[in-house]
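seq as requested:
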Amino acid sequence: MITLELSGLRLFGRHGVYPQEREQGQDFIFDVELDVGERGVSDRLEDAVDYDAVARAVQEVSDAQAYSLLEALGTAVADELLRRFSAERVVVRVTKPAIRPGGVGGFAAVRISRP
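struct tokens:
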């Protein structure tokens, strides 16, 4: 089993519950994993999953609409990656680094798996 991984995709978005989050926007960090079977073993690009296309798909979903919740954003990305790349399994982690949960250090993130 080959797992394609992209880590640290930093995208600007206008997602969030609060009006200032949607007005000002902020960065979101995406980490994705796609289980793609044996695609790419042939050493031919046309047989593999193009990681540039995966990154563009993540950006297209993020740019398509504003989401209130990280859970909804991550689910939309995971579902689109699963559909578009016919992966056997997709894992998406979305991190919102600008917030400080409870006023302390750290960040908020969600992890979505499909199927």
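The first helix runs from residue 19 to 24.
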